[in-house]
Amino acid sequence: MRRLAYSSLLALFSLAVWLLLGMFGYHWLAGLPWLDAFLNASMIVGGMGPVDLLTAPAAKLFASLYAIFSGVIFLGIFGLLLAPVFHRFLHRFHLDSEEKS
Asked: d(Cα 39, Cα 5) in Å, to the nearest integer?
């Protein structure tokens, strides 16, 4: 349970950092207010897509790269959450080491 709690906290922290990075990018590059930047970043991280129309080339480039890496970050966070469960599964069925005599 301790490993699961630690992995959950690490996943939550990683998600918060990634969301903050997206908020800063949308705020500074696209000129969106903080609430709209939060909305756009959270929609991208959630896989829904952006809400506001972006006109500046730098904002479009940021949004494209942020969307691509959000998919990778999402898979990594999902792996962080499943790692303790999979580890327990290996221990439960003695699949983590070769058979001992």
From this structure: 28
Q: What does pTM read for this prediction?
A: 0.77
pLDDT tens per residue across span 34-68: 999 999 999 999 888 889 989 999 999 999 999 99
Query: What single-letter DSSP state applies at residue 96?
Result: S
Tokens 């069925």 -> residue: 93
Nearest-10 Cα torsion for 51, 56, 59, 60 = 70
CB burial of 33-51 (b: ≥16 within 10 Å; e: otherwise) equals: eeebbbbbbebbbeeeebe
Q: Which helix (H) or strand (E) holds 12?
A: helix 2-30
Q: Is 49 helix (H, G, I), strand (E, B) or coil?
A: coil
Fold exhibited by the domain 2-92:
Helix Hairpins (1.10.287)
Domains in the chain: boundaries: 2-92
Beta carbons of 34 and 27 less than 8 angstroms apart: yes
